[in-house]
Amino acid sequence: MPAHSAPRVLPALGKPLAEVVALLAFTRRVFGAALASVAGRRFPVAETVVQTWYAIRVCTLPALAVSVPFGIILALQVGVLAQEVGAVAFTGAGNTLAVVRQASPLITALMLSGVAGSAICADLGSRRIREEIDAMEVMGLSVVERLVVPRMFAIVAVAVLLNGVVMFFTIITTLSVSVVLQDLPPGSYLASVTTLAQVSDLWLSLAKAAIFAVICALVASYKGLRAERGPTGVGEAVTSAVVTNFVLLFAANFVISQVYSTFAGGPIG
């Protein structure tokens, strides 16, 4: 590499690192504000309820719309693979395990980051360019405690609930496809589920959904509060928040799955 190109490389690497450091500092502020609001008995319950209901309204139907075709594709692929390797009896277990461990929390996270996360980022970004955030800071109000904390708790609550709904509909879809299109007996399909799937897989799915929701809320709030340059800046912040969330969610899913498989993988861990 030429010597004169080194000054150009360092700023290019420094900006992403600075963003990571700033996001980690923002995360520490949010959790500190959450503990302070709970300990001080000033937690914004009303705002949390409003944000929870909004996230439920805008995320439920898109998540179900994605879970049904995903379940169809998963059932067909697993069914064909099971027939090729002579493990048709384990089709139900394979489908269920894939849904519980991977598909359900990922579908939930992607819907939350793409729908609820973008709405949070746009809302906070709009407040920033209208100088509402500056007004709150001048009055001595904690922006993180009043605006970010309730949204984070709302997204976590919706993620856990929506994860269960998506899981149910996706499993029902895989069962229907396997029974109708692949002529598998429903009794043997359901009986094979307990062969591989365990209760710990359900807890893993719920934990993934909650962690993904925290990441989604933190990134969306961070990007929204840093929006600049008017409506164009808000649009850029929303785009950046969605892309960053997708990257972090897949990275977090990989890390959590590997750690779980290493220490408590179960029959196929």
TrEMBL record:
<protein>
    <submittedName>
        <fullName>ABC transporter permease</fullName>
    </submittedName>
</protein>
<keyword id="KW-0472">Membrane</keyword>
<feature type="transmembrane region" description="Helical">
    <location>
        <begin position="61"/>
        <end position="82"/>
    </location>
</feature>
<feature type="transmembrane region" description="Helical">
    <location>
        <begin position="234"/>
        <end position="256"/>
    </location>
</feature>
<feature type="transmembrane region" description="Helical">
    <location>
        <begin position="102"/>
        <end position="122"/>
    </location>
</feature>
<dbReference type="InterPro" id="IPR030802">
    <property type="entry name" value="Permease_MalE"/>
</dbReference>
<keyword id="KW-0812">Transmembrane</keyword>
<keyword id="KW-1133">Transmembrane helix</keyword>
<feature type="transmembrane region" description="Helical">
    <location>
        <begin position="153"/>
        <end position="182"/>
    </location>
</feature>
<feature type="transmembrane region" description="Helical">
    <location>
        <begin position="202"/>
        <end position="222"/>
    </location>
</feature>
<dbReference type="Pfam" id="PF02405">
    <property type="entry name" value="MlaE"/>
</dbReference>
